[in-house]
């Protein structure tokens, strides 16, 4: 899986560390940054993601300020960069604290223009307690929100 390079550490002015909700600092490319920004603001709202850093018209970083999934990088742990979408499109998974957030993510993502790629529900083929939903974002990337049970 090849991910688009995110802004450099110097551009973000912060450490590249792992958070609870997003496993690395991945970046998605989009030909329409404003459309993607609006989509992710709505779709990730159930996880309390907000825009943490913005490079006007070029890129924006999303992060969680407090609570579950708090971003260890103050400039965001997920980035969108204005550039042609990658081929092939990749899959990125975010972790949810409960099934309710998975359900809310799916509903919010569809309302924001995403396309259903797997309704919320158990996925026992992955492991017991795996509960996830999948949505294609406006550029066709497969976005997953998963609750690992417990």
Q: Short summary of the structure?
A:
This protein is α/β, with parallel strands linked by helices. It has a single domain, classed as Roll (2,3-Dihydroxybiphenyl 1,2-Dioxygenase, domain 1). The protein is built from 3 helices and 8 strands.
Question: What's the architecture, going by CATH?
Answer: Roll
Q: Whole-number radius of gyration?
A: 14 Å
Describe the sheet with the most strands.
4 strands, mixed
Trace the largest sheet across and list its strands: 1-4-3-2
Tell me the overall shape: globular
Q: Topology as H/E string?
A: HEHEEEEHEEE
The CATH homologous superfamily:
2,3-Dihydroxybiphenyl 1,2-Dioxygenase, domain 1
User: What fraction of the residues are assigned to beta strands by DSSP?
Assistant: 25-35%
Number of helices: 3
Give me the secondary-structure category. alpha/beta
Uncertain segments: 1-23
CATH topology: 2,3-Dihydroxybiphenyl 1,2-Dioxygenase, domain 1
How would you explain this protein's 3D organization?
The protein has 150 residues and is an alpha/beta fold. The chain has a single domain (23-147), classed as 2,3-Dihydroxybiphenyl 1,2-Dioxygenase, domain 1. The chain has helices at residues 9-12, 33-43, 99-111; strands at residues 27-30, 49-55, 59-64, 78-82, 91-95, 115-122, 131-136, 142-147. The strands form two sheets. Strands 1-4-3-2 form a four-stranded mixed sheet, covered by helices on one side. Strands 5-8-7-6 form a four-stranded mixed sheet, covered by helices on one side. β6 (115-122) and β7 form a beta hairpin. The chain is globular and about 40 Å long. The two termini are 29 Å apart. Residues 1-23 have low confidence and may be disordered.
């Amino acid at each position: 899986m090849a991910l688009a390079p995110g802004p450099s550490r110097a551009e973000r002015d912060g450490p590249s560390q792992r958070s609870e909700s997003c496993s690395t600092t991945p970046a998605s490319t989009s030909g329409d940054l404003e459309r993607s920004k609006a989509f992710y603001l709505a779709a990730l709202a159930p996880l309390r993601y907000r825009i943490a850093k913005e490079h006007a018209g070029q890129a924006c970083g999303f992060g969680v300020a407090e609570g579950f999934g708090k971003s260890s990088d103050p400039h965001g742990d997920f980035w969108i960069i204005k550039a042609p979408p990658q081929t092939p499109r990749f899959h990125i998974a975010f972790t949810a604290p409960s099934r309710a957030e998975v359900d809310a993510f799916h509903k919010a993502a569809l309302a924001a223009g995403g396309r259903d790629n797997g309704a919320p529900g158990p996925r026992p083929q992955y492991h017991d307690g795996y509960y996830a939903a999948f949505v294609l974002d406006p550029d066709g990337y497969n976005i997953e929100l998963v609750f690992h049970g417990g």
